[in-house]
Each structure stands twice: as structure tokens, then as C-alpha cells.
User: Fold these one by one.
Assistant:
Number 1:
Amino acid sequence: MANGSANCLFCNNKSVCFNELTDDELKQIEDNKVEILYKKDETIIKQGSFASNIYFIKKGLVKIYIENSDRNLILEIAGKSKMLGLTSLNHTKHYKFSVTALEDIVLCQINVEVINKIMITNQFFNTQVIKSLNSTIEKILDKLHCISHKQLNGRLADALICFSDEIYQNNKFTLNVTRKDLASITNMATENVVRLLKEFNDKKIIKVSGKNIEIINYSALKELSK
Amino acid sequence: MANGSANCLFCNNKSVCFNELTDDELKQIEDNKVEILYKKDETIIKQGSFASNIYFIKKGLVKIYIENSDRNLILEIAGKSKMLGLTSLNHTKHYKFSVTALEDIVLCQINVEVINKIMITNQFFNTQVIKSLNSTIEKILDKLHCISHKQLNGRLADALICFSDEIYQNNKFTLNVTRKDLASITNMATENVVRLLKEFNDKKIIKVSGKNIEIINYSALKELSK
DNA sequence: TAATTTTGCTGATATACATCAATGTTAATA
DNA sequence: TATTAACATTGATGTATATCAGCAAAATTA
């Protein structure tokens, strides 16, 4: 929970965003950031609260989700190098989503004013921030497309592909999320996640054993995704 | 179709974005923009094409939608002062959506390089662009929430509230869209739009007569929206 | 003006999916 | 280690919503 002795200048977890900052700019960030450890299941960002900080994940996975009285919708499972809370760049805004830790997390919380300042002085950084915003838009558009146009098996296939290609970058992985979370990712009932995982397993598309999943027939998944 | 004699300096359709530009900056835009007229049903942006321009709507309504082989999803009905195509700010990107005219449109097409240049020289403008990106994110998140959590009547209620509050800014309006479009907005079958409009009409929540709609019981709609 | 296409409307039917209920299994806590 | 709670699983049932079919009305085109 302590402000990092961790020095921004020599930080080897820097996102592309920070790559081209001058030493002076990095110093500014260092003076206005804290490094924080979150334990599994702790809330990092709470939906509805004032958006006044930028977060940068150094280690571990989080889930970003829209809260709802009955049922949540997970927008993204994100990990190392993810910037969170860019909503804060424009003041007087509230977070539209919550973020909680799926495992132990190390992140840097950076004061939004410094980010705003450096966006003025450093054109490259400014571009990177806009890129990040655009990529967020792209991601949630994909999500929207997936949920509005595809049916259950396609949506689950999409989720599995995402885990394999992006989150774990391995066709064999151990889930950090529950079946209920999988249901929140794909916007279906938990029971259907279970049933479909079994069906995929029986069809030898994937191999499921508890939280361990191995993708056997990738192209079949891609086909289901359509 | 001609480059406007329309002078940016004296344009009275300027969006907030352009409000604080210097005369010189406005001149730069003027030299790198064309004013274009689109007729009803013409395509302004085609999904999948290279994103290389910024558009600014001066007059008329457009629909922004995700194309899909079987069924489209309308993200937004937008009008005067809307900036389109900010995806272009980062190069080598394709549009993730299409835009077509719902009526005769006047818009300015601005070269993305000038926009990028002015974002460097003018901090206020830069902030406005980021605000615009953030507001896009917020809108899509709302849509995602609506489609994933609400059922048919709630989704249609949402759409009607949006028409009344934002698009037409009047509780009595004449739709520029077909029932099929309404179905694409709410992600339901066209038949259900018809049935629900009739039901709302019978319950004296709204008064429907063809494309003319009047909202009678606004609070009932708000209730349905939950 | 007639002919054709698109849009709007209505009821009947089908189905994808959620919900419910019941039970096993693992993980957290005392 | 016992106790509780959260998670996972399976089958049976219900329902919201899509699909289909058929026709009327408007709008476009010939």
C-alpha cells in the first residue's frame, strides 16, 4: 500500500504510452502517483463514483463490468499494461463501470492532472491516450455486436477465443473466473455456460476439467463464433 | 457538392469543439475541408472502409449502425453538431460502423491531418475531442446495458425517451425512421415494434398515428425503462 | 393510372433461452 | 475437523421473443 520506492524512470512495466516520455515528465508522474496492491476480489473502481484518477495495471488480472441490481455484464478481462479510468480526463464525470481484482494486483494510481499536463507537453503521449480511447470504443462495439447478433454457443466461443488469444495467450489455460463470471461475460445464465462447456467438451472442441481448459479444435470455435 | 463558399470563420453551425479556435486555425480548417450535401438514404460512411476523414454534421439526421449479414444494429441517431469518424485520428484503422442519411444532409468533411495538427496547437480543442470520444464510450455502454439487461418494452421505452428528449427535443414528433429501423435500434423483430407501439398506444402511454408519435405519459415510459 | 415494391400490421407457431428445483462439490470459516 | 457458504451441475418446466405466413396500406416506379 506504500508509495512505490518503485522509480518510474527505471520501471520495466511501462506501457507504450509512457515509452517516449522525457525524464522530466516521468519524474512528474512519479511525484503524483502511488503504487497500490489489491488482493483478490477487492474493488478497484466502483461504478457511480467520481472519476478522478487514472490507473495503470502493472501485474495481475481484473474484471471490468457494468453493475446491475440483478445481473452484471463483464465488459473485459484486462491485465498488465491496461490503462483504466480515462473517463477521468474530462472532469465532472462518474465511472460507468466497476473494476475488481481477479487475483492479487499491483497497479499505479496516477493523478489525472499530471496526465492532462503531459498530454499537452508530449504529443506522442497524447496520441497514445487517444489510441487507447479508440481501442476501448472498438472493444465495446465488438461486445455489442457479439451480444446483439450471436446466440449462446457463438458468444461462448467468442469468450473462449478471447481467453486463448488475448488474455492467457495460450490454447491451454486455467480460468481466473467462475462459471458465473463466464455467464456475465457472455450475458447468459450460468446453467447455460455449464451445459455449453460440456457440449463443447463432448464434441471434442475443448477439453474441460474444472477451471482448466484446453482448446483442441480452434477452427471449430471460430466457426461457432459466426 | 461544392467546396463551401461557406466560410469557417463566420459559420454559425460551429460545434463547441471549434468555438475557441483562433482565426488562423479556422483558416486551416477552411482550406482543408469540403462541404457536402447528401440525399436521403445515401451512405456517408461505409463500415470496413479506411478511416481517413472527420465529419461534422451541419444539418439533418443520420443513423450510425453496425452492419451484419442478417440484421443491423443502430447505435445512434445523430444530428446537427455531431462529429463523426474520430476513429480516423489513429491511422491505419477501418470504420467499425456505417452512417447513412435519414434526410437531406449538409456536412463538412475535414482532413484528419488538420484536426491532428490543431489538437497540438489548441489545448481546448484537444480536450473537446477527448470529451467527444468519452461521450461516445458512454453512449455505447448505455446501449450495451440497455440491450443486455432490459426486455422488449423497456428497450422501446428507452428509444422513445431518446427521441423525445434528445433527437427531436419535443414530446410530439414525426419519426424519420421506419419500424424496421426502430427494430434495429432496440434489437428486436420489426413485428414486436409494431405490437408494442400498439400496446403503448392502447395503454395511453403514447399516441401513435403512422410516423407521428406523441408521448402522453412520460413517467410511465420512464417506469417501463427500468 | 396501373403495377410493383416497400412498409406496416396481425395472429399462429416455434424455439432459444431463462428460471426453477434439487443435489453434488469445492472452498472458506469457525 | 466440522460447518457453512459459494460454486458447479443436471434435468424439467416456463416464457419471452423470433419466425412464419398472409394481407393491407402506403410509397415508389413504370
Number 2:
Amino acid sequence: MTGELGGSCFGCQVRHTSEWCALNDAELTLLNNVKVPKSYEAGTTLFHQGDDCDGIYCVSSGLIGIRRLDADGNSTLVRLCGPGETVGYRSFLKKSGHRSTAEIMLPSVVCFVRRATVRTLLEQNPNLGLRFLDHTLKDAEEFEDRHFESVTLTVKARLLSLLMVLYERFGYLNENGESMIDLPISRQDIAALIGASPETISRSISAVQDEGLAQFKGREVRFRNLDALIEQLRPA
Amino acid sequence: MTGELGGSCFGCQVRHTSEWCALNDAELTLLNNVKVPKSYEAGTTLFHQGDDCDGIYCVSSGLIGIRRLDADGNSTLVRLCGPGETVGYRSFLKKSGHRSTAEIMLPSVVCFVRRATVRTLLEQNPNLGLRFLDHTLKDAEEFEDRHFESVTLTVKARLLSLLMVLYERFGYLNENGESMIDLPISRQDIAALIGASPETISRSISAVQDEGLAQFKGREVRFRNLDALIEQLRPA
DNA sequence: CGCGCCACTTGACGGTTATCAAGGTGGCTA
DNA sequence: TAGCCACCTTGATAACCGTCAAGTGGCGCG
């Protein structure tokens, strides 16, 4: 709920974009008293697939990766959650164990709210439930769209699409006014995210460079022709 | 809400499996008074992609197909909704236009409940909202799983998986005790549903027949070896 | 400094699948 | 019955992509 440990929910920068914007002052005070803010290093985890769901996590800053084990036991990245997003709420609402593992991708501050508190707030304030409903609707649509994309678009098109999504969240202009991203995830994770092999991702990246759309140096991406790139996403 | 036009919600066979099982008698009476049951021929539509959302539809009997237009303007089948399921509720909850077209696949009876009524019931009974939440969660999980399948399994495996789903809903034993399905959809729709071309579906069906798993005659499927078929779904 | 480790890249190959094209079948109307 | 049309099948071909394998480069560590 707050950018600094022990900070107040009332000062939290993401308060108005998270589910908790439905709460009134009294409820927010309750939340503020029982929430457990904590700072995490990259590589650590909030919970593991199969764990019991003891509560939910609100991302204040940083980036969380949601992973699932595939049939071969490999851990594959399923989605990313940034500031203002709530993690683990679907398992909470379903009253089931966690279906996935939540891994810290970037140094993050995350507030934990234990189950009983969320339940109390949900009973007190129906609007909070509606906020969760909205969030779930958004998730469902996102998965629907991605399913649609994965059977319609090629790997390269999906890569460009992902780059645009990441650009919206992590993009910036460098000193020369060029559009840039510092990718928060590895190529392997990119591969998992769009449902392709790491080799194909590597080749797709080469193709994107050959076409002069962008330059890749490690995790740094420099866009050369954002208009042409966006244009490639249109035709389908 | 009812198997016969003008019938009562109280006697509806799907009442206990639909969202409306959350309602008490008074609320059900309200619903019963304002709902509009209607019989539809195959090929007609409940609403079109882009239409305003004026309410939600509860499937009493028959089968509804949800279609979306792809980039080329082709209408592709996205999912099927059977008795007890509610159609168009996500657009309603999101207060947005319909993202897809709902087409009648089999002769169906569908009850329309207009927006104001649903809103009233939602305000009166928080449990109804939770039911919708559950449904949305299920939708999200389904698309998550299908996304996973579509990048993991071959077309033939996905076809077998779809056949099992359809068997659960439309399967029966014929006079010889053989497991059968009368497919409710065309091969083109099967193709769209699992994300493949119609030609590949046709070839996959041939392969399934060559392996002695099932016989296809038009839309009639006769299973030859259900155990072996299920076994092929396991390995993952 | 050398070593190993890991992520990434690149090449070669093969399998799966889409695409294009040419029949075939069944249902419908005239 | 003929003719048409939509749907389905079958064949040939090529594109896409996954897999296996070898090589590169960065980075920490002894």
C-alpha cells in the first residue's frame, strides 16, 4: 500500500488504481493497521504453486511474475503484475490453493493482507467485491485475447505485441529522444509468455532488427521505427 | 428459466445450476415476472458484436455459439454455451457493448432479463454478484488452460480433447451400447474452436479413424475405443 | 587469470501445419 | 432430373516453428 515500509495506506501512490479505492476512511484505517508491507529482492517468491492461500498481496512497487509448472516440470511465466495490482486474489476468491508461483522480477514492495481481513472488508463493503469482479473480468478478457492472438498471429507478431505492452509500462525516452525499454524479463521468459521456444524468440528478435524496427542490446531495446512497428500489428 | 415458453422460473430445470440459484423466493418471483422467454431457430442470433448490452440471456435449453470477427472479417467460433449458462453477462458487468456475436447453434429456449432487473437483483442480493464472480473466474481459468493447450498440444490432441468435452455434453449410447455423439457444430467451427484450419481438422479426423479410435459419418461420431482415446489425452 | 556456468545466439534438420488447388458429396431449388 | 452451392475431403507445396547441437559472450568465483 505504500512506497516505503511501514508507510500508511493513505499515502500509498497506487491506492487509487488498486482494488482498495472502494474503501472508505474507516475501512482504510483497518487495512492500514493489519497490512504487512515488506520489501523483496528479485528472485524471491511471494508464494509457491500448491501453497495454501492465506491472504492476498498488493503490489506497491516493482514487478511480480506469475509462473506455472508445465507438464515437464519447467516453470513458465504466465503473466506480469505491476504496481497497483493485486496478486493471489483469484485463489483467495476461489478458496483454493495457489495455482501458480509468484516470483519477484524486480526489487519490489508488496503488502500482505491476511484472509480474515479481506473477508471482513468484503462483508462490510460490497463495492470491494465489485472491484474484484472488475479485475477478474479484465483478466478473463486478457486471457481470451491472448488465446485469440496465439492461434492467429505468428511468433514475431506476438513479440511485437508484447514489446508494445512492455513499452507502455516500462518505456521511456533517452537523452536523444529515442524510445527505449529496459526489459524486466529474460528471453526465456519472453518465450514462455508468448508461447514459443527461446530459439524462435532469438530468431524473431534478429528479424525485427534486420527490418530496422528496433535494436536489441541485452535487455535494452532501442526502437528505430515505432510507427512501422505499430503498423505491423494492424494488418493481421 | 424454463423449458417451455411462458413457464415459471420455479419449475426451470436449470435453475439450480445457473447463477440464479443464489436468489430467494421473493427475488425469483420478481425475475419470473419480468423475464422474457423465447424460442429460437438454429442460425438466428441473440445479439451481434458491437451491439449495446441491454441485458443478459439465460440458456434454458439448446446451444449457443459465441463468435468473434477476426482480422479478416471472418466469424470464428470462440466458445459454446449450453443450458444453465448465462450469455452476455460479462458485457453487462463491464457496462460495455458486446464483444462478440451470440448465434443459436441448436433450436433453443433462452430467457432475456433486462438490465434494470439484473441491477436491482444485484443490489438486493450480494450472493448473486458472487455467483457472477465465480462464473468469471471459471471463464478466466478456462481461457488460461486453453491458451496453455494451444501452444502445448498438437491439433489432433486438441481435437480429441474437444471430442471429450462434447461427449460429456452431447454423448449417448446407441442401441448397440456404443458411445456416440451427434456433433452440434460444423468442421469449420471445430477448426476455429481449437485454432486450426479446416483442412487440418479433416486430416486429423482421418488420422483418428485410421487409428481405430472413432468413426465419423457426417456429424455423427461413433467411438471405437474410448479408453485408448482417453489414454492419448493423458501423456501431456 | 582461468574456469565454469548460464543465457543467449546461430545453424541444420524435421515435423506440424497453413495455404493453394482440385475434386467429391449432400442438400436444396427449379 | 439437373444444377447449384456450401461443406467437406484430399493432395502438393511451402512456411513456420520446435528440437538438437555447437558455439559465443558475460559474469562470478576460486
